[in-house]
Design goal:
binds thymidine-5'-diphosphate, DNA polymerase, domain 1, Rossmann fold, 13% strand, alpha/beta, 48% helix, 13 strands, 430 residues
């Protein structure tokens, strides 16, 4: 087990874990446009991130007092609803906090933002469960200095402790609280600001911060997630949303698809889906899917997992089991021809989007032109659907998602399942 340099690690939120500038700037733009005011360039608007809003509306955009009050109200309206979600977690932070927990550190948050916003932000980005304690102001509550916030979030016997932050308030608070002050240079404060306010040490970026806290080599294994279901189940839309979400969490993502996902397999895809291949035998079809998969694993999936990325794959081996095994009636042979390539590369999680074949057909006909396999008739699609459902009962890696709701509802279900998988990083030290 790695020696921890600090047994207790306290983080600031904005500028240290998340970058909330975009949500702030967008909400300022909204307020100004609602008031019919001209909208300055982004470089000018960046000045709104940090200081008191009302002062910025008066100082930067020259609104009078009454207009500024109204601008703050409009700002809050948008920020409360969507702006806070436009934050992004700095790349590498999620894995680093997981690693701290894995090595037994006490992890806390001391922020001057409201407690509700802190909780909501950590929750949304899947980090809430990794924090032992959060201290932040509550409306109408005591006004606490940063030092008090830091002291209150430490455990009874904190051991060696540090405060990590990007602004002078964090460094000054750390010193007053008697903990080590670790400044980060990737947030909103400058080197000069942090040095002058007593930082004990500065870290240029997240990898440097990680080295300052843990002497392990980052060795997160990647995670492999496949998206499955009948044609028209909405998995491709959900995969795009999942990708965006994980990127916002600062996690490296590789998204890919089957058949295809690398140059050779994309050529096989063209052959498979071309309506000019109508005479193709079922066996040829199954072997081509397996062949494309073998190349795809080698060229795309394995290299991405080895570098620690999260791989999102639109269809994988379970599509062959459902379409060729059950749909075409080739049975267990399909599993056998896939075994060799797939055995060392099974998904950690397979999301099966469950939509009735009737609804799927309705959706498909309103979508673009059908490919050769989609044009299969009879009860082919019903067999495929039932095969997906019965796969869900065979192994823990499957997770059935009710795909009959709205895109947002389904997206939220997927998000929660992704968070569960990714925070297992914190326990999993394989
Ligand atoms: P896909 O690209 O998912 O099509 P769409 O984006 O239109 O949903 O998949 C193409 C077709 O290939 C689809 O009908 C399912 C089929 N397929 C199989 O029959 N076996 C397989 O192993 C795979 C990966 C796909």
């Amino acid at each position: 087990m790695t020696e921890l340099r600090f047994q207790s690690v306290v983080f600031d939120l904005d500028g240290t874990i998340t970058r909330s500038g975009e949500g702030i700037v967008n909400s300022v733009k909204y307020a100004l446009s609602e008031l019919g005011q001209p909208i300055p360039e982004d470089a000018v608007l960046a000045g709104f991130v940090g200081p008191e809003l009302r002062d910025s509306f008066m100082g930067i955009t020259h609104l009078d007092q009454a207009q500024s009050e109204e601008a703050v109200r409009l700002f809050r309206k948008r920020h409360e609803a969507i702006g806070w979600r436009e934050a992004k977690v700095y790349p590498g932070i999620f894995e680093m906090i997981c690693a701290l927990k894995r090595h037994g550190a006490y992890v806390a948050l001391a922020s001057s933002k409201s407690l509700m916003l802190c909780e909501r932000t950590l929750e949304y980005f899947g980090l809430r469960g990794l924090f032992d304690k959060i201290t932040a102001p509550v409306p109408g509550g005591e006004r606490l200095s940063k030092a008090e916030l830091i002291c209150r979030c430490l455990p009874e016997t904190p051991g060696k402790s540090c405060m990590i932050g990007d602004r002078k308030f964090d460094m000054i608070g750390a010193k007053e609280a008697g903990v080590y002050a670790l400044g980060v240079l990737y947030g909103y404060g400058s080197r000069q600001e942090l040095e002058q306010s007593g930082a004990d040490e500065l870290c240029q970026d997240v990898p440097a911060l990680r080295r300052a806290l843990l002497d392990d080599a980052p060795r997160e294994k990647g995670r492999f997630i496949s998206f499955e279901g009948s044609d028209g189940c909405g998995k491709s839309t959900q995969l795009k949303l999942a990708r965006q979400y994980l990127e916002d969490c600062g996690i490296e993502v590789v998204s890919t698809r089957e058949p295809g996902g690398c140059p050779i397999s994309e050529r096989i895809r063209a052959l498979l889906l071309d309506t000019g291949s109508m005479g193709m035998t079922d066996e040829c079809e199954a072997l081509l899917f397996a062949a494309a998969r073998a190349q795809h694993i080698n060229d795309t999936i394995k290299p991405a997992l080895e570098k620690g990325a999260v791989v999102l794959c639109d269809r994988f081996v379970d599509s062959s089991i459902a379409y060729q095994g059950a749909g075409r009636g080739l049975g267990d042979w399909v599993r056998q021809i896939n075994q060799r390539a797939v055995e060392k590369c099974l998904p950690d999680l397979t999301l099966v989007f469950d939509i009735s074949p009737e609804e799927a057909i309705r959706r498909r006909y309103s979508a673009s032109q059908a490919d050769r396999i989609e044009l299969s008739t009879g009860d082919f699609h019903r067999r495929v659907y039932e095969a997906f459902l019965s796969l869900c009962d065979t192994d823990q890696r499957f997770y059935k998602v009710d795909a009959s709701g709205s895109i947002e509802q389904i997206g939220e279900t997927v998000r929660q399942r992704l968070v569960k998988l990714l925070t297992e990083y914190a326990e999993d030290d394989k």
